[in-house]
Amino acid sequence: MTTAATELDRPYAVAPSDVERYAADGYVKLRGVLDAGVVARYEPEITEQVIRLNTQHLPQSERDTYSRAFLQVTNLWQQSEKVREFVFSRRLAGIAAQLLGVPSVRLYHDQALYKEAGGGFTPWHVDQHYWPLSTDRTITVWVPLQDTPAELGPLTFAAGSHRSGYGRELEISDESEARLDEFVTSSGFLVDDAPFAVGDVSFHSGWTIHRAPANGSETPRRVMTVIYMDAAIEIAQPINRYQEADLASWLGSRPVGGVADGPLNPVLF
């Protein structure tokens, strides 16, 4: 009998054109990767864990830009066996490996990103600013848990920006929004803010410049993400306080130069 769990582990062959698009643009959107029924099977449990574990209770008016952008809860796989099934999906991890062009990927960590009704925009930023990793063989899958039209704040990419090297020293902030917005506009990058249907997912590189608009609807935008890394990737010397924190939190304080194979970093494919 086919179950949601077996659907999550069913192989998915990425088209060569999508591999090429990912390499060129630093991201790719794949339609219908997950059956809508599979998403519906896991969304209530993910949402329940986000509500239970969320520590942000200030009203929107009293938060800074980052805190208004979303509720963020990490490593839900440790809190729920059902969420673990989702995060450990071999289907999603296999796609990540194919796009990266590596034989195997590990988990860096997962995070739920819930943009509340009326929640603010997510500033332009790059993810790998936060990660003490030796190469750019990193990739994040962004899985919306409902249809995500423009008014809910779909993830938005600056195509090809992962090759620019610009803004990598910037933490996500009002400054990153202003400086990267000017850079993206002046550089003429195509900005892709197309909506997602439930079952669609995107994968993006750690250096791809991306953002998300505000949620102008009365419905929370519910998203689950998983960050993967090449299974052979090594730990780099942290260069900022965020990387120092990540080394301790997600990488088990493994030594610099060693493989990132801490207890929270299992091989997923």
Task: Give an account of the 3D structure.
This protein has 269 residues and is of the alpha+beta class. The protein has one domain: q2cbj1_9rhob like domain (Jelly Rolls). It contains 8 helices and 10 strands. The protein has helices at residues 4-9, 16-25, 36-53, 65-69, 81-87, 90-100, 174-187, 241-249; strands at 27-30, 71-74, 105-115, 122-125, 138-144, 156-158, 191-192, 201-205, 210-212, 221-230. The strands form 2 sheets. A 6-stranded antiparallel sheet has the order 1-8-5-10-3-2. The two termini are 23 Å apart. The model has no long low-confidence stretch (mean pLDDT 96).
Principal-axis shape equals globular
Major sheet attributes: 6 strands, antiparallel
Q: How many domains make up the 3D coordinates? A: 1
Number of helices: 8
Pfam family, one: PhyH
Protein name: Ectoine hydroxylase-related dioxygenase (Phytanoyl-CoA dioxygenase family)
Organism: Asanoa ferruginea
Keywords: Dioxygenase, Oxidoreductase
Task: List its salient traits.
iron ion binding, dioxygenase, six-stranded antiparallel β-sheet, 2-oxoglutarate-dependent dioxygenase activity, Jelly Rolls, 20% strand, Phytyl_CoA_dOase-like, 8 helices, globular, four-stranded antiparallel β-sheet, Ectoine hydroxylase-related dioxygenase (Phytanoyl-CoA dioxygenase family), alpha+beta, 269 residues
